[in-house]
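Working notes for the structural subgroup meeting. M.R. asked for a predicted model of this chain before we commit to crystallization trials. I am recording the input and output together here so anyone reviewing the notebook later can reproduce the run.

Input as submitted:
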Amino acid sequence: MIVYNLNCSAGHDFEAWFKDSKAFVSQQKGHKIGCPVCGETKVEKVPAAPRIGTGIGKDSETAARNLEDSGIGAANGADSGAVNGGDNDASGEPAVPTGKAEQDIMSALNELHRHVKETCDDVGKDFAEEARKIHYGDAEERGIYGEATEDEAEELADEGVPFATVPKPPREDA
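Returned structure, recorded in token form:
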């Protein structure tokens, strides 16, 4: 996954996640990236400041736990799904939001995770298998979440099984 800071022709700044740089270019050329504020599809990448981890307050056990916990996802019936995801800085630790916009996004992400855990079934490492069963009608349609490898996610996409990647926010108790 790659995150780009973008700006629409109306001057709104936002960020978007892409599988890779080719996916961004393809979606940009096809006018498939819409500004979340105004819907404008003429967008450009803007420079981003690097995230430099200080390591303050982090020991190796906490860093390992953060990496281990770096992904969660959700699927609602046959319309969406999820795989492991996460945004890590150069040190491998999850990036911590610093500005108001980033904190608002993290708050919304935390709320999404709470909602998913309350309303969907955790299928753990069987996510890809269970998503397939739901997609092909071999299991009851319901919301699920869990983990999948990159290879499993690629296979699901190739088969047309809809799913979404939902990054897990950094741990707050670290």
